[in-house]
Amino acid sequence: MFPLGCSPDDLFDSRRVDWRLLPLMSALYAVALIDRTNLSVARTAGMAVDLDLTVSNRYSTVSCLYFVPYILFQLPSNVLLKFFGVRLWLTICILGWGIVQLGMGFVKTWGQLTVCRVLLGLFEAGFFPALVFVITTWYKRHEVQKRLALFYLTSVVIGGFSGIIGYAITFLKGKGGLDSWNWIFIIQGILTIVLAILNHLFIAEFPQQNNFLTAEQTNLILTRVEQDRGDSLPDEITGAKVLHHLSDWTIWACALMFMCSTMPAYAVAYFVTIILNSMGWNVRDSLLLSTPPYAISCFTFAWLSDKTKKRAPFIAAQAVMVLVGMVLTGYAKQNGARYLGLFLSAAGSAGCVPAVLAYSSNNVVSHSKRAVSTAVIVSAGGVGGIFATTVFREQDFPRYLNGVWATIGCQLLMIALLAVTSWHFARKNRLSREGRLEAPLEGTPGFYYTM
C-alpha cells in the first residue's frame, strides 16, 4: 500500500489539512467568542445605563441565562451533527446565532436582551463541541493539542481584539439614531451571517467524507488514525452506547476539569473591562487593555505537551498560573500588579482549555464515545460560565473577592482531579502491560492512556 520502507507518518504532510481546517474554524469560533462575551464591551459602551443593567443582579442574570440552553443542547447537538453532516449543521448554528446577535442591536429592555441571550445559547450549543470533535478525528493523539491550542488561541486572540473593535465602533454613536452599543451587536451580527455563508462553502467534513484530498491522501489519513487508536471510521451512535459511555467516570472528571478551566476564562471575558475601569482607566483604555498578549504562553505549553506526550503536568502548571494571577488581581495594591494578575489568569485558563480537551480526547476511542465525551465536557464548560457570572457579583465590585476565591477553589479542584485520573490511567496501563486485564484498554489492542 505504501512505498517500501515508508510508514504513513513519513508520507503525511499535515499542512494541507491544517490550512483547510484551522484558519476557518478559528475565525468561526473567534466570532462565537466575541458574540458570546461582548456584553462586557457593550456594557462599558453605554448599554448598562440604557437598559438599567446595574439594578440588582440584572447583568449577571443576562450573562448567566445564556448558558442554560448552551449546556442542555450540547449532547443532542453532537447527535444531530452526525445526522445532518458538518457543513449543514454548522451553517444552521452560525446563521441562527448571527440573526439573534443582529437582533440584540435593537432591544429596548433588559428582558428582551435576556431572551436574545437564551436563543444565542441555543444556537451556539452545537458549535464548539462539533469543531473539537471534527478536529480530533483528523490527527493522531499526540498531534492534537498543538492543533487544538492553535485553533483555540487564534480564536481567543482574534476575540481578544473585541475590546479594540468595540472602541472603534463607539465612534458610530448617534448614527441612525442608535447608541454605540447597538452598533456593536449589529455589526458583529452581520459579520456572523457572512461567516455562515463562508462556512457552508469551505468547512471541512469528517476525513472519510472530505472533498479536498485525493483518495490516496484520505486513505493515508485514515490509516494513521487507525494505527494510532483504531477508530478511523465512525461507529453507529445508539442509545445503549450513549448510556454506556456516560457511565465512564473519567469523562465526568474531565468535564469538571474543563469547568475549572473555563470558569476563569469566562470571568476575565465578562468582567475584565469592568475591573480595568474600576482601576481608574477610562472607557477607551479599559477596552484597549482588555487584549492581553498571552498566546505565546499557551502555545508553548501545548508544543511541550505534544512533544513529551504528557498532559497532566502542563495542565497543573497553568492552573498554578491562574492561582497566582487571581491572588494578584484580588489583593495587590498597585494597578500594574493587578493587571499582571489578569494577564496570568487569562494565560493560564486559555492554556488549560485546549489542554483538558486534548487530555480527554487522547483517552477515548470510537467516534460515538468521542461525540459523547466532547459534548459532556464542553457542556461542563458552560457550567463554568454560569459559575463565573454568579460568583463575580455586582455587590462585590470592584475587587470581586468572592469570585477570586471561587476561581482559586476551581484550580485546586482541577489539580486534585488531575492527580486522581493520572493515577487511574497509570494503574490501568500497568495492569494492561502485565496482562492482568480481561480485555485491552478501551477495547483496542495496543492502546494505552495518556497522562
UniProtKB/TrEMBL annotation:
Presence of the UniProt keyword Oxidoreductase in the record: no
GO terms of molecular function: transmembrane transporter activity
A Pfam short name: MFS_1
Annotated keywords: Membrane, Transmembrane, Transmembrane helix, Transport
Major facilitator superfamily (MFS) profile domain span: 24-427
Cellular component terms per the entry's GO annotation: membrane
Name of the protein: High-affinity nicotinic acid transporter
